[in-house]
Specification:
Elements: E1 2-3, H1 4-11, H2 15-23, E2 30-32, E3 35-38, H3 40-48
Helix pairs in contact: 1-2
Length: 57
């Protein structure tokens, strides 16, 4: 589980941008208390949904 701060650092954006992604349902998150946590599989899905070209495996 990652914090919004960790996600912001990973993508080189501000925390408010991560909150915006969550609010707009672009990035799924769990709200625990007053904070959000993002699961590894949700990060992967978020990245996959933003690929501009298909990746062959």
């Amino acid at each position: 589980m990652y914090t919004c701060e960790e996600i912001a650092e990973r993508y080189g954006v501000k925390v408010i941008t991560v909150w915006d992604w969550i609010r707009k349902k672009k990035l799924p998150a769990l709200k625990i208390g007053k904070e959000y946590r993002i699961r590894e599989e949700d990060i992967k899905a978020f990245e996959d949904s933003r690929l501009t070209t298909s990746v062959s495996q």
